[in-house]
Write a structure and sequence with these properties.
five-stranded antiparallel β-sheet; 9 strands; two-stranded parallel sheet; 341 residues; alpha/beta
Amino acid sequence: MSLQRSNLKELLTDKGISVVKSHVASNARQNHGFALVVVIVILLLVSFLASQLILQVRTELQVAHNVKKRSAGVFLAEAGIKLGLFRIMDKPVYYEDEEYENFLEGRPYETSLPNGKVRYYAVNESGKIDLNNPPPRLLELFLEYHNVEPDRIATIVDSLQDWRDKDNLHRLYGAEKDVYEELTPPYIPRNGNITEPDEFFLVNGTDILLDKFGADEIFTVHNKTRKINFNSLPPAMLDFLTEGDPEKIQAYREAQELNIRLGGIHALEILGDERFAILKPFLSFSSSNNNYYFIVSEGRNVYTSLDNETPNDNEAGIKISILAEVTKTKYTYLSWKEDTI
């Protein structure tokens, strides 16, 4: 009996040790599994942080690169503005130099600088349509060129007059304060002289023309003659007069180079009999001492290689448009506009 109890005790003791050992081994395996999970989570977290750091560095590098390119574009465009002003004011009087290149208003000039290219042109404001006193038929012809429907043309012509007059009486196709107050967002007409060309796109009916041209490339508020100076045509106005005909545009440029100052005979030869007959009442051939000039300059950082010998003309750039009052000895900026191109 005593022997049996002793054997039983030993058996229980052995089983207890075995159970304890089994429990300890199980806990060890669980701890190892938990530790593995913790290590994996930490590695994932570190990887995520590293990827975010790399992304941030790349973003900052790209931002810095874009800022540098924009700054270069701005400086190049400003150089074009200065070149335009210099050529306007640089008019030899006391000598004749056969090699001196006359500056042709409206003609795009291009020059290369160490870090990019500059393209610019300068024109007298006398080559544009004055919004404060445009001949209605001239405005109609311009709108017809841009394929505006007759009803919409009547709306724009009458609404432009209503925009400037001081009363609230509607012309037949015009618009007054009540029309503009119903828009989103609402605004009111000027009821006075227009102060800048961009106001044109606030006039009732002009919204369809927003993407077709820049207002300051066609219109002005500094041409009191009610005519267009044939010798100072911005590219967009030249397109209008020649109806976009490449041969006529080329003939105009060649005539400028040969004759410097164009007259009615040249306009007839360039435009043709029919087009000239339509436009003749609205053409002039002198700036009439107009001191206001419009200059447009585009600056592009076109070089992508370290040796600056591989130009990329598709690079984005900066376009600056300015209006300046220019005299013999000084100039004054009246407006300055920057755009990304």
